[in-house]
């Protein structure tokens, strides 16, 4: 069984870096969490899939699909969908593009998302919440019903509050402080 402690340790070992960084939000930080180094690893996928699915089941959100803005959300969504495969209520994964593709069907949302789906937006790291809000806009415009946002890491820098102000409940598997506490 996946443990939160194992995920926090893996994030500390692989994804957390100290130094001087500019985040995607434009903010300066002495901590960078490149969660992809964890979310795209076999061990990370297993942990995130199981822990994310468990968190969704406990939330009562009753979702049919999970997804978010590419690229950070993609492995999180895929891990949860895979972990749900043998559960009584499997969930489908999808990806929200940053821009609609210019060829073929010109879709903004890729994968088995369906109009009317009850959705959990997933994120690797929440800082300001802007990526989740962009995904929420696309999902709503395409007929999805957003139950909430599930993040692997909450940096506790206002993103949760920003999302909640928009009526989106937030669940985070862990926080930046939990990861920092495990840095050597």
Structure characterization notes:
With 184 residues, this protein is an alpha/beta fold. The chain has a single domain (4-180), classed as Rossmann fold, CATH 3.40.50.2020. The chain has 7 helices and 8 strands. It has a 6-stranded mixed sheet with strand order 5-4-3-6-7-8, with helices on both faces. Strands 1-2 form a two-stranded antiparallel ribbon. Helix 1 (4-14) packs across helix 3 and helix 3 packs across helix 4. The two termini are 26 Å apart. The model has no long low-confidence stretch (mean pLDDT 95).
Explain briefly what this protein structure is:
The chain is an alpha/beta fold and 184 residues long. It contains seven helices and eight strands.
**What topology, given as strand order, has the largest sheet?**
5-4-3-6-7-8
Q: Which stretches are poorly predicted, pLDDT < 50 over at least 5 residues?
A: none
Query: Structural class given helices, strands, pairing?
Result: alpha/beta
Instruction: Report the sheet with the most strands, covering strand number, pairing sense and barrel closure.
Output: 6 strands, mixed
Q: What is the residue-mean pLDDT, rounded to a whole number?
A: 95
Distance between the termini: 26 Å
Shape: globular
Question: Which CATH class?
Answer: Alpha Beta
Number of strands: 8
Helix content: 25-40%
Strand-residue proportion: 25-35%
Gross CATH architecture: 3-Layer(aba) Sandwich
SSE pattern, N- to C-terminal: HEEHHEHEEEHEHEH
Summed up, the helix count is 7
Cα-atom Rg, whole angstroms? 16 Å
Fold-level CATH name: Rossmann fold
How many distinct folded domains? 1
